[in-house]
Structure prediction request, 478 residues.
Amino acid sequence: MSQAVAQARTVGSSLFSSDAVKKAVDTIVDEVAAASAKLTGVRGPIEGLEQPYEDSLKKLGEQRGRPLYYPYVGSGAGNGFYVELADGSVKIDMVGGIGYTPLGHAHPELIRAAVTASMEDNLKHGHLQATGALFEFSDKLLTLAQRKSKLAHIFVSAGGALANENAIKICYQKHAPASRVIAFSHCFMGRTVTMAQIGDAAGNRQGVPLSTQVDYMDFWNAAEADRVGQQAHIDAACRKLQEYIDRYPRQHACFIFELVQGEGGFVTAPREYFVALMELCRKNSIAVWADEIQSFNRTTELFAFEMLDLGEYIDVLTVGKATQACATLYTADYNPKPSLLSGTFTGATPEFAVGKRVLEILEASDLYGPGGMAAKHHKAFRDQVGALKAKHRDWFPDLPCGIAGGVGGMMRFTPFGGDKEKVGKATKVLFEEGLVTFYNGHGPYHIRFLPPLAVMSLEDWPTVFEVVERGLARVAAG
Prediction:
């Protein structure tokens, strides 16, 4: 570096390269690590904190108009898959708020990124004014997506539903005046007015005027494919799609593909199934939109479209949760006209710094590929479910979908025949026993795991399932 360039540093670059600042950040990271190390196992509340905690939960319920699903208010401390609540209890977190903690709690590299980024002049970024953190995050995510796709551009937004809103606007504009949308049954798209209409859950759109025209396709059904043959099952799906296309010619703007259904029960399909439907979309000028808000980083590749080798077909992609900030990516052909995409907020500075670091750590990890740790963890999970069934056969009636499913870090198991009431009760009882989970599916219902595989070892699974067994025993006993 020349002397002139060295002297032409900004105040900002001088601040962030300051030895004093680096030392202060190191001190904070070390303090967090020392505190986190104290959390090494499940425990109950600390005496004296229970009543204040109950009082705060009651107040929260009054503020919201209904109680929290779980009595969960974090203390701000955690360690890997352990998280401490404000009553001093410690839980094993197997769902990460539905997937936004891919590296668990209090990961030192993420603490470092967040603390450093928090020193910027403003917490929030917007599309009109932003610092380099937004563009560095965007560049990293887009570069990773471009490895096996034709995606050329990225637009960051403040949430997954907003990323989906931007995606549908891009598709509408490209294929105007087409106004219809194709989606899979049991899909979930978010809770904005438009996304609630597309999502296949009536309860999420009660009282919402239905202005979005949606045609639903049945998702891949493994049992039916076994019965009639895989190709016959694919041919039937293509006939149904063609039926919609013939009924509403040139009226479909996009087909939304959840390559692994999240709320639908962690089900996926063979590549050939998706290819056949995507080819039909391409032939009829219907945008192929892959929704990876939940599946990103949780399959056996970083992107589900990479796992299924579908990148050449993707026109629009939405990503979120694990990335911290959410984004809509699209090919050059789908680059929208000015003013279609905008927004005051893109997110907070630490989100971009932490998101970029998450992407770097995941990229360098040993999670992905046929022999990667994601596949090994998934096998260990299924082995634990199988062992539990062998020990308690009455808890696990046989089902066409099997008692364990998913792919990679998207894991589900199905006790009590998938009965909605019992599965819902099981999630609450497991929480009481020290395990944070959630449910998915729409009959049968499943218990859902989204574990932080990057910070877990295979030896952790027996510890998790000790709690599972205790909780299910309570539910089985009524």
Remarks:
- Residues 163 and 328 are 5 Å apart (CA to CA).
